[in-house]
Write a structure and sequence with these properties.
The protein folds into 2 domains: about 55 residues, 2,3-Dihydroxybiphenyl 1,2-Dioxygenase, domain 1 (Roll), CATH 3.10.180; about 55 residues, 2,3-Dihydroxybiphenyl 1,2-Dioxygenase, domain 1. A hairpin with a 5-residue loop joins β6 and β7. The longest helix is centred in the middle third of the chain and has 14 residues. Strands 4-7-6-5 form a 4-stranded mixed beta sheet, covered by helices on one side. The protein has a 3-stranded mixed beta sheet with strand order 1-3-2. With about 130 residues, it is an alpha/beta fold. Helix content is about 25%, strand content about 35%.
C-alpha cells in the first residue's frame, strides 16, 4: 500500500503577509507558483492560498466568522519550547487567545491566531511524544 501524504491548505486574505508570518516562525518555504505558497513540514506540507480562490475551488462561500471547528497543533518536547514558540508567534504578529499554561489533561499548552484567524495550539504532552525520533 502506498503511504498517504497529507497537506493542509489555509485560505488567506493576504498571501504575502501570511508567507512572511510563517517564514518568521521558521517554516521552510518550498518553490511554488506565485499564487500559492508551500512549506514543508515533518511528513506533510502546509499550503497558503487566497481565501476567495480556495472557497471558489471548493464551491463554497468564502464568508464566515467565529470558530471554524478546526485547530492546527504544534507539539514540542518541553514547556520552555512552548513558551519560546508562543513568544515567536507574538513577535511575528499572532494574537494570543490563550496564554501558555498547565492544561487540565496534564500537559502544557496555549493558543494563538495567525493573521487570518486560523487557530494554532502549541503544546507539550509529557505522556507521549508524537514527533520524530531523535
Amino acid at each position: 500500500m502506498n503511504p498517504r501524504i497529507s497537506m493542509i491548505t489555509l485560505g488567506v486574505a493576504d498571501l504575502q503577509k501570511s508567507v512572511a508570518f510563517y517564514e518568521r516562525l521558521g517554516f521552510p518555504r518550498m518553490e511554488s507558483p506565485p499564487e500559492v505558497a508551500f512549506f514543508t513540514l515533518n511528513g506533510t506540507w502546509l499550503g497558503l492560498y487566497g481565501r476567495n480562490a480556495l472557497a471558489e475551488d471548493a464551491n463554497v462561500s468564502p464568508e464566515g466568522s467565529g470558530f471554524s471547528g478546526v485547530t492546527l497543533s504544534h507539539n514540542l518536547k518541553t514547556e520552555a519550547e512552548v513558551d519560546d514558540l508562543m513568544a515567536e508567534a507574538t513577535s511575528a504578529g499572532a494574537i494570543i487567545t490563550k496564554p501558555a499554561q498547565k492544561a487540565f489533561w496534564g500537559g502544557y499548552h496555549g493558543y494563538f491566531k495567525d493573521p487570518d484567524g486560523h487557530l494554532w495550539e502549541v503544546a507539550h504532552n509529557p505522556f507521549f511524544w508524537i514527533g520524530p525520533d531523535d
